[in-house]
Design goal:
With 385 residues, the protein is mostly helical. 37% of the residues lie in helices and 1% in strands. It is globular, with a radius of gyration of 23 Å.
Length: 385
C-alpha cells in the first residue's frame, strides 16, 4: 500500500494534468472554450478541501483561500464604544490638519472604498503625494502599513499623515491643545478614557479603534466558498483557476485577504527615470529592497483603482497585461548589479505568462467576483465643537 500522502499527491497531479491537457487542446482548436470552462468549473463547484492544489513556487509560504465572516451583530455594539465614537469624529474632522481643511477622510473616503480614486493624494496647499492612497478596508489585518511597511501599528501610522508637510501639515505637539479647547471633544475623551485630558497618544488610539472597524463586505466569491456554487459563472471560476495556476497570482495573493503581507519588486521602480521610487530600501537601507513594495490586498480590488504604488494604472486589462509580460525587461544583470548595488532586480516570481486574451478576460471576471458591493458609511452630520 502506498502512503496516503503519495496517493493524494498523485491524484492532484492527475487532475492538473487533465486541466493542462484541456488548455492545450483549447489553444490548438481541438476543444471549445465553453467545454474548457465547463470542465474546470466542475472541479471547483465542491468544498474547498476537494479543490486541486494551486501551482505555487518552491519556498513560497502560502495560505488557502478563506471566506470572510458575515456581519457580526456585535458590530453595532462595537460602533457605540466610546473610543470608536471618538475615533470616528476625529477621522472626519479637519481640525486635525494645520489648515483646518483636511481630514483623514479627505484621502480615505467612505464613498470610494476608503481610498480616493486619485493617482496620488492631494494634501496641504494642493501638494501632491508620491504614492497612491491605499484603501483602509481590513487595515486591522495588515502586518505592516504604508507601501514600504514603515509602520507596524495603526497608532504608529497616524503620526505620518497628520504631521507630513504635504498631507495634513499639523504639528502633532500642538494638536492636543487645539482639541482640548472644544467642550464636545473634552466630553468624548472623558467618555473614552475616564478623563477629559487630550493627549496625542489618546488621539491615535481612538483613530486606530475606529479604523479597526473598517472591513470588507462579503462578496459573491465568499458565498461561493460557503457552498453557494451558483454565485460564480463558469468564466469567473476559470479565472480563479488561472489565478491559482497559469497566471501565478497566488504566489503573492493568497489567504482570506489575497496578500502574502510581504514586499516585492515587480519591475515598476523606474530606476533613474521619472517616477523613480526606491520603495522599502528607504526604510531598511538594504540594497536588496530597492523597488520593493508591500503586496496589497485584492479584496474589493475593482473598487480601489487606480492601482500600483504610484497609481499610474487605471485599466485592469493593462495591469494584467503588465504581469503577462513578466516585467523582467528592466531587471539588473549581474554585471549591472555589481557596478551599481542599488540597481533593482525584479522578483524572480515575475515570469512571462503567455496568457491569451480570453484568459485575461477570465481573470478580470474573477477579480470582479472578489469585489463586494460598497458600504458607504455616512459622515457625521455635525462635529464636536
Amino acid at each position: 500500500m502506498f502512503p496516503k500522502f503519495f496517493v493524494m499527491r498523485y491524484c492532484v497531479f492527475v487532475v492538473l494534468g487533465i486541466i493542462f491537457s484541456l488548455q492545450a487542446a483549447f489553444r490548438s482548436g481541438d476543444a471549445t472554450g465553453r467545454s474548457l470552462t465547463d470542465s474546470i468549473a466542475t472541479l471547483y463547484r465542491k468544498p474547498l478541501s476537494a479543490w486541486p492544489l494551486p501551482a505555487i513556487d518552491s519556498g513560497v509560504q502560502w495560505q488557502e483561500f478563506a471566506a470572510l465572516p458575515g456581519v457580526d451583530t456585535a458590530y453595532f455594539t462595537l460602533m457605540e464604544q466610546p473610543d470608536v465614537v471618538l475615533g470616528k469624529y476625529l477621522f472626519f474632522d479637519p481640525l486635525l490638519s494645520g489648515s483646518n481643511q483636511i481630514s483623514c477622510s479627505s484621502c480615505h473616503n467612505p464613498q470610494t472604498s476608503w481610498a480616493d480614486k486619485l493617482n496620488t493624494p492631494i494634501g496641504h496647499d494642493h501638494q501632491t503625494g508620491r504614492r497612491n492612497t491605499l484603501s483602509l478596508l481590513n487595515v486591522s489585518e495588515r502586518k505592516t502599513l504604508f507601501w514600504d511597511g514603515r509602520a507596524t501599528t495603526l497608532e504608529e501610522q497616524a503620526l505620518a499623515p497628520i504631521s507630513a508637510h504635504d498631507e495634513m501639515a499639523m504639528d502633532a505637539r500642538q494638536l492636543p491643545a487645539k482639541l482640548q479647547q472644544y467642550r464636545g471633544y473634552r466630553e468624548l475623551f472623558r467618555a473614552a478614557y475616564g478623563s477629559d485630558t487630550v493627549t496625542f497618544h489618546r488621539i491615535t488610539g481612538a483613530l486606530a479603534a475606529f479604523q479597526r472597524t473598517l472591513t470588507s463586505r462579503r462578496s459573491r466569491f465568499d458565498r461561493f466558498l460557503d457552498g453557494e456554487y451558483n454565485r460564480l459563472t463558469d468564466q469567473e471560476i476559470y479565472g480563479m483557476h488561472l489565478f491559482r495556476t497559469k497566471a501565478r497570482c497566488m504566489n503573492c495573493h493568497h489567504g482570506p485577504h489575497f496578500t502574502d503581507e510581504d514586499f516585492h519588486n515587480i519591475g515598476l521602480t523606474y530606476y533613474q527615470r521619472k517616477y523613480e521610487d526606491l520603495g522599502r530600501y528607504l526604510v531598511t537601507g538594504n540594497p536588496d529592497d530597492v523597488g520593493k513594495f508591500r503586496t496589497p490586498s485584492l479584496r474589493d480590488v475593482m473598487n480601489t483603482n487606480p492601482w500600483m504604488h504610484n497609481g499610474l494604472f487605471d485599466n485592469i486589462t493593462g495591469v494584467l497585461n503588465l504581469y503577462n509580460s513578466g516585467m523582467q525587461m528592466n531587471s539588473a544583470t549581474p554585471e549591472q548589479k555589481a557596478a551599481d548595488p542599488l540597481y533593482p532586480v525584479t522578483d524572480p516570481l515575475m515570469k512571462k505568462l503567455d496568457l491569451s486574451k480570453a484568459e485575461i478576460q477570465a481573470l478580470e471576471a474573477f477579480l470582479e467576483s472578489i469585489t463586494a458591493t460598497q458600504y458607504k458609511m455616512r459622515r457625521p452630520e455635525t462635529l464636536p465643537r
